Amino acid sequence: MMSQLTKGQKFIAYGSLLFVLAWTIFGLFAIWLMTSEG
Amino acid sequence: MKLSNDANKVLGTFLRQYKISAEDVNDLEEIVSMMPEDRRQIYKNVESNPVGDLFRYSVHIRIQHLLTFTTFLLLAFTGLPIHYNDAFWAVPFNEVLGGVEVTRVIHRTLAAWMVLSMIYHLITVIGGTLQKMALGQFDIARSILPVMKDARDFVEDMSYHAGRSENRPEMDKFMYKQKIHYFAAAFGNIVMVVSGSSFIFPEFWNSVLPADYASHFQEMMRLSHPHEALLALLVIAFWHWYNVHLAPGRFPMQWTFLTGKLTREHQIEEHFLEYLRCLASLPEERAYLREMLVSKGLVSVSKDIDARQNFLFDQHRQWVKEQAMQEAGQEPVGEEKPS
Description:
Oligomer: heterodimer
Radius of gyration of chain A: 16 Å
Number of helices of chain B: 16
Largest sheet of chain A: none
Largest interface: A-B, 20 and 31 residues
Strand content of chain B: under 5%
Shape of chain A: rod-shaped
Number of helices of chain A: 1
Number of strands of chain B: 2
Helix content of chain B: over 70%
Radius of gyration of chain B: 25 Å
Distance between the termini of chain B: 19 Å
Structural class of chain B: mainly alpha
Distance between the termini of chain A: 51 Å
Strand content of chain A: under 5%
């Protein structure tokens, strides 16, 4: 059983999650660049 | 709980290497005998602080991870507009920084920081290993080095994920997945450093390589640098970040990279052998687990039988006795060792 995160901890955890998801979009963009290179 | 052969081996080595006292071993034996055979009963019922309960990574490893991921992300971010410097989106990006030459300088400065982080890591792991060897506390099973058990763990874990077995394998401090990831990252870093250095120091590589291969090498490096970067980006985004952010039990984020600690639940599920070491060395963890097992009615019903089957504790008590007698300058009494 996991105890609850505090507000500050939630901010860090979800902030980091948003950051990595944004970077994943960047990864997809990088794939597009590489594959459209010809 | 009847300890498996792997658990016996790991725990036996740890008890001797860290000279765990006979009193602590008595306590450990009791708590092991109280543990239910089904490990899911334990990790699904323990209390865990999401920020971490049990120590795992030193501050050095955390700093190295921080240096590696910040430089890696910024290197990827500056590397793309260098590689595609004439693309519509790269031109304004490079102009903001002062031109592609400036982006290149930033990229190379970040690369130097990444190399420094690698050197720092090598010093830490080699120095730490030598220190443990000198103290007689090195155990290859606890290290990141691959061992045959990892292949067995992989097969057993796949079997668990396919629904063919009830429990995950008893894995050590570093499981097979982490070892693959670590060595893939090490390989990727070497490729990036070698290929990157061939752009900055082509004369050096021309002087050390046979003349017939030098130009092929340069071409190969020009191809491998962006493609290895893309591979790394994909591995980080779709594998590593899944494992530390999105995987069940980790969402929304695993805190180990900041706190150096792992949750109790995670430790028992994926690193049970390391958890046994924690039980051996932390009286407060034994006290917690005892209280939890009793309060939730999870104490193993086959307690007496199991306790007698875990011979390693008797062996260790005998070993402690012999050590004490040797230190006192007496010959050990020829007591029959339990087989």
